[in-house]
Structure formats: structure tokens, C-alpha cells
Amino acid sequence: MINFKHFLILLFGILFSGCNSSELIENWKHPDIDTFEAQKVLVVGMTRDEKSRKNFEKKLVNQLEKNGVKALASYKVFETNYTEDPKTEKELLTLESNLTDQGFDAILISKVVGVEEKVTLAQAYKNMDRMFDSFKDDYYNNQNIYHNEKYYDEYKIYHAESTLYCVCPDRERETIWKGSIDITEPQRIEKAVNDYIKVLIWALKEQNVLMRAETDETDDLFFIDE
Fold it and tell me: Distances from the Cα of 224 to the Cαs of 55, 172, 207, in angstroms?
């Protein structure tokens, strides 16, 4: 039998993604953890575009703080030009130790992990729910396939993921939560960032990691400053 709470989460997820360019595909939470609240979270956005990275991290930090989570963007924490050169595992262990010394006990990292080209038959999709009375009607209504170059709609889906790691000094450093979010190529990159953050915050609340669902401020999520 389907758990009613899980059904509601799925239902609201479907409805919620309907007006967004982002959609939660799946998420996982450590089975031994019911709730997880961090004292201080480092927000990391991995992208080659420095401006986009700062914009994403700033907006996500803002939304976390609106929900009572103390967070700081990586561009304010990492040394200047830290991301320009590859880091060794030893250097990253040193970074984790430095973060715990600074009071951080969690890291929320987000990145695009793949891009998929999609093609839809625009007019054919519109006609799927129509029943034609004859060959003549069917042919007549779809003959633009032969002539219309825009019959096919091309777009991209970006497969992204966000992962929450514990870097607590008094417990094993482990994965707390992970979510996969698909982003359908929007007209504006700003909308993609806002929609992604809306879905991410919603998912974290529903899983009771970083913040609890009962302290919901969902309405604020629809007014992220651009």
C-alpha cells in the first residue's frame, strides 16, 4: 500500500513542477537519519561560469537563511582563484578540516552532470488526442510534416544534482541527502536558477534535512529576486 504522506509528496511534486522549468526526478536520504539540522552550511555551485556560480550560491544562501538555516557561499569562503586548479584528495581533506574549524558541519553541493538533446513532434503531439474521421482528414491536418521545418521542436534537458554532506567533527563524514533535478532549457538562465532553487528547497523540507516542512515558507519561494 502506498504511504499517504509519500503520495502527497509525489502529488505536490508533480503539481509544483508543472509551472517550473525544473523537476525533481528522484531523491535519497540516509536510511538511519530521520531529521538533520546543521549549524552552518557551505553552499557550493560547480560551474565554469564564475558569474553564474556566484549568482546561484547567493540566491540559494538567501533562501536557506529565510528558512532559518545559517549558510555561506563558497565564493566567500574559498581562497581567491581556489577553483582554477585541480585539487588533490589530500588538499580536499585539508579543506574539510579547515571548514570544521570554522564551524561548518555540512556542505550542500550542486552541479550539472549531463545534457540530453530532446526532439518533439510539435504538431503531432497536438494531434495525439484527436480522432480523424478519414484518411483525408488525417492527411490534411498533418501534411505540414512534408514542408514545415519547424515541425520538430528541439530543446535540451540538463540533468543536475544536489548533495548534502555531513562534515561534522563528532561523526563520520557521510552523505545525508541527494536529489536529481532535471532542468528544461528555459528562455532565461535566471528563471532556471530560481526554479531549481525552488524545487531544491521544497525537496529538502519534505525530507526534513536542514529544515522542517512545518516551518514552511513556500510562498516566499515564488518571489526570488532576479
Answer: 12, 35, 22
Q: Could you give the C-alpha distances from 128 to 136, 141, 142, 183, in angstroms and in order?
A: 17, 12, 11, 25
C-alpha angle 193-221-34 in degrees, rounded to nearest 5: 95
For the record, the C-alpha cell of 173 comes out as: 563524514
**The model scores a pTM over 0.85:** no
Rounded Cα distance, 34 and 209, in Å:
8
Alpha-carbon distances of 40 from 70, 107, 181, 200, 208, rounded to whole Å: 5, 9, 24, 18, 16
d(CA 66, CA 36): 17
Q: How far apart are CA 197 and CA 202, in angstroms?
A: 8
In angstroms, the CA 202 to CA 204 distance is 6
Residue 220 has pLDDT above 70, yes or no: no
What's the mean pLDDT in 200-212?
91
CB proximity list for 134: less than 8 A, separation 6 or greater: none
pLDDT per residue as tens digits for the range 40-96: 999 999 988 888 899 999 999 999 999 999 999 999 999 888 888 888 999 998 999
- Strands, DSSP E only, in 75-151? 106-121
Question: Rounded to whole angstroms, how far apart are CA atoms 30 and 124?
Answer: 43
